[in-house]
Amino acid sequence: MEKENDPRIITDSELLGLIEAAKKRDPAAMLKLIELYKEDIVRISNFIYMPTEDAISAITLEFLESILNPEDKFPTQ
Length: 77
Prior knowledge:
77 residues, mainly alpha
């Protein structure tokens, strides 16, 4: 269930703006995106069989790489 007045909730246009800025390698946008998804990243890291810190690092790296190089992850047909 969604938390009321959750500061992590942003509009679609704000999210798209952050993604576009991150694609242009804006460090502040990248940090904001990581912060937005930090709770999910930590939760998912519990299902990976490696030390938690390593799992969090791996997930975060893959997340940023998928934003910076989307064509590498999802080839078009």
